[in-house]
Amino acid sequence: MAERPAPEVGSVSSRKLLIHSLASLIDQALLSGLNFALGLVLIRLATKESYGVYSQLYVAGIFASTVIEALITGPLTTIAPGRSPDERARLATLLLRFQWQLSIGLALAFGAGSAFVADLTGIDAHPLLLGIAFAVYLFANAQREYHRSISFIEARPRRVLHTDIAYALAAAIGVGILLLVGYLTVPAIFLVMGLANIVGMWRSTDHGYARQAHEPASFRAAVAEVMQRGRWALPGALVAWATNYSYLYIAAAMLGVAAAADLNASRLLLMPISLSVLAWSRVARPMVSRLSAARDWKHLDHLAWASVAGIEIVTVLYVVVLWLALPWLQAHVLGVKYHGLEPMVLAWGGYFAINAARWIGSSWLTSNDQYRLLLVSGVACLIVMLISASVFIPLYGAWGAILALIIVEVFDLLLIWAVFLPMLRRKNT
After folding, report:
1. Which residues fall within 8 angstroms of residue 258, CB to CB, at 6 or more apart?
2. Helix or strand or coil: residue 334?
3. What is the largest CA-CA distance in the chain?
């Protein structure tokens, strides 16, 4: 039986959020497991330089995804829940064209940029092959993410799960082939991931959209509608990316690629927490938009505190289990190249516990179209990040990078929950 979209109901129950969040959590657990396994393979079998290069390119890929999320899928997630099913389908179809244009441009720019940097720095990767593979990965990943976003908007988490199962299987088979032939290089990995995204995307392209022609006037109107929000969302998103990930490039510049590898290897073990938060936000944001539009503050408050409590419980339990498993992981998985990461992993656990609560507040602001406040928050956090990193990385090395991130998250948490959200409530009351 085909999965049906969720009915348009004015009041959104916590039970529905729980069911959809569970399906989304399973989906994100699958993606987390795939990225986790790939990271461990690289940690175990690749050199620190190769893993450091892969980490920095992967973060650059997050940058490209951030641009598309800010300009298209983020505003669409805010706008679409208030539209009828036909209007949503029409808007999604028109914006798919914009998605192709933007993702092609980003893929070409980042592919050329990665090839240039590879040639300039002389890293152990063929520049042309690296540029092509990275461009393929960025473009294919952008398409799969767009169709996943549409499925979340339509409240079809099972369709998303089918998409990502196909993607994960294709990626696992591709990486397995690379291991068998002994060709586990950074360009080969990104090419395999790009092709796997294409396989996954085939599972999610049938959303029942109206196959209308792309009338220029309708297309321009759809783009203008999302850009009205995107022009404020993009600067804030880019600033947030710089706040969250610039530490990797700063550490590599100050301490070397090996330090970046240590930071990413220790953070990798905590990846399931961040993906669980992302799973929650994918499902909750359309619901928050509906509740905010209805001024249903009681259910919004209940949803907020239940979400924070649930995610923090998951975070604490995961960190405890991981801490107990670290001796075995150090001996059998991480190896001598990454000896002594245990304290760093615990520090990352504290960071993610704060980050989870902060992320929920940021999602509330996004769902209420408060992109200007997010931009203010992002700029303030970037300033705090640059000051903290410039002070603590020279003093404490890789530890200083994590400390700087924790300081930023505490600052942003207080700013959003103690200042912005109460101000937004007073304004809308």
Report:
1. 48, 49, 52
2. helix
3. 63
340 against 1, higher pLDDT: 340
Q: Look at 400 and 298; give whichever has higher pLDDT.
A: 400
Pick from 101, 105, 129: which is nearest to 115 by CA?
Answer: 129
Answer for the pair 71, 233: CB distance below 8 angstroms, yes or no.
yes
- Tokens matching residue 288: 């928050």
SS3 label, residue 44: helix
Q: For residues 205 and 11, which has the higher predicted lDDT (pLDDT)?
A: 205
- Give the C-alpha separation, 356 to 272, whole Å: 12
Amino acid at 43: I
- What is the DSSP code string of 278-321? HHHHHHHHHHHHHHHHTT-HHHHHHHHHHHHHHHHHHHHHHHHH
d(CA 279, CA 28): 6
| Residue position matching structure tokens 């339990």 | 317
Please count the other Cβ atoms lying within 10 Å of the Cβ belonging to residue 428: 10
Whether the pTM exceeds 0.85: the reply is: no
CA separation for the pair 252, 264 (Å, rounded): 11
3-state secondary structure 175-194: HHHHHHHCCCCHHHHHHHHH
The DSSP result for 185-234, as a single string, is -HHHHHHHHHHHHHHHHTTS--S--------HHHHHHHHHHHHHHHHHHH
In angstroms, the first-to-last Cα distance of the chain is 44
pLDDT in tens, 301-315: 777 777 788 888 888
Q: Measured between alpha carbons, how far is residue 21 from residues 151, 152, 177, 310, 311 in Å?
A: 14, 11, 34, 11, 11
CA–CA separation, 305 vs 310, rounded Å? 8
Instruction: Specify the pLDDT at position 292.
Output: 67
- Rounded (to 5) percent helix, strand, coil in the chain: 85, 0, 15
Rounded to the nearest angstrom, the gap between the alpha carbon of residue 312 and the centroid of all alpha carbons in its chain is 19
| Distance (Å, whole) CA 182 – CA 404 | 39
Q: How far is CA 408 from CA 117, 242, 358, in A?
A: 29, 12, 11
CA dist., res. 403 & res. 348, Å (int): 9
258: closest CA among 403, 85, 420, 55?
55
Q: Which residues contact residue 200 at a Cβ distance below 8 angstroms, ignoring those fewer than 6 apart?
A: 144, 163, 164, 166, 167, 168, 170
Cα–Cα dist 343/347, whole Å: 6
By the 10 Å C-beta count (0-12 exposed, 13-18 middle, 19+ buried), 137 is classed as buried
